[in-house]
Amino acid sequence: MERLAGKIMLSSGFGRTITAILAGAVGALAFPPFGFFAALFISFTLLVWLIDGTTGSPEGGVWSRGWKTFVIGWLFGLGYFVAGLWWLGNALLLEADEFAWALPLAILGLPACLAIFYGLAVMLANLLWSDGWGRIAALAASFGLIEWLRSFILTGFPWNTVGYGLMPIPMMMQTSNLIGIFGMSMVAVFVFSSPALLGTKKGMLPGLSIALLMLAAHLGYGANRLQQPLPVADDALTVRIVQPGIDQSRKMLNEDRAEIFKEHLRLSALPPTAGQKRADIIVWPETSVPFILTQNPDALEEIAKTLEDGQILLTGAVRMEDAGAGHAPRYYNSVYAIDSQGQIIGATDKVHLVPFGEYVPFENVLRNFGINNLISLPGGFSPAVTREPITLPSGKKLDSFICYEIIFPGEVPSDIATSTAIVNVTNDGWFGNTPGPYQHFQQARIRAVETGVPVIRAANTGISAFIDPLGRIVAGLDYGQKGIIDSTLSSHATGVMTADMRQMHFWLFFGLLLVIAFISRIGLMNRKN
Which of 147, 286, 405, 450 does the annotation list as catalytic? Predict the structure, then answer.
């Protein structure tokens, strides 16, 4: 290990650049559908040695070394995000004549921008870098801070946050209830970076010991929490998820819309699956209704004929709102609640829209360059001002998260514990059978664990599932399957931390790592003097 560490630290030029990119790219194997979390041990061990080689260089001053470490972090991030997000380009190929030119922007441009965050993380860690295990603490703290910032700067995109790499199975998901995904990112970076100490020896015993204790506590807490019983109440909702499996290219054809609607109705009308009661709620995926529902009373009548008395349909649909004389109508990506009489009894709109998918930022400027959003609506979608739950006639509440809204932990309402379940409707058919839908699904599972609330996930082409409050899949349909799932919802998990408590624990952990890194840095400076 010492020989390999020395070789990496002393590398330069093209070899050093390739090593940094490959180190990041290998880390993508930790995320679904692979779930090989040990890959991040390779990634972060190499990253530590690359930083060692930069900070140990006698050339240049503080700013020069800071820039060099930024470049190392940026190259690492470029490999990480290209390997983890290449599948985004698949959405552009559905209308290749119009959008193929943007493939390099999706496959390389977005990762290059996201890599700036990792460049900053490494540059910040460099300020408190030392030669012992304190540098591992510095790297963990800086990544935790930067991953938190990545969740909201420029609308945010916390996809494949490092912490997810340490949570491939339910037993390894439970600690997120205590410290959230950004706290988990600090644990992950510390643990995954610790083997680097084997190559440099200094601080090896305390650093590896603390990493092993962290990992043992993480696993032990998870194993203990999974022993928690999750009873089903007498008045628990029985829910049906419809996964129609409609290919996205077909959804974009106007002539197929009536048939697509009938497929949803046919699946909804199937008898209950073995051992299940009749569904109280039926859930269709995002934009399942292929027309403006309020302009089509015949469709509402067909829904009423399909639903049995007392049943309610939750469906993704485009909602149109009149903006007044002289103004174009506004369109919203919404979820409707429709009763068995065909009446719309509730609706909630998407708050966090997808840039360039559902709207164009700086539209007045960018449209002059021919840049349009993927979804063909005049002016794109409008965002809702606030997130509103759907309240059922029984008084039970369901909080809806449309598509990638589920990846933003900061957007979960503070009163989520008062809701019966989280409903996540999505259409991952844009991305085909690539890592994207699997990564999206994992992040929905972590929201269940963090909040202690079950998740009902309806995806057009998959993955649809009932996820219990401990992140376990109760029942599901894999990607590409067509069908239904019936299940009765369990109660909430007990002993759940509130979002405020998780945030407090995150900052306390961040502060502790910062103190360790600072003390280690001061010790190094004193030894040099």
Answer: 286
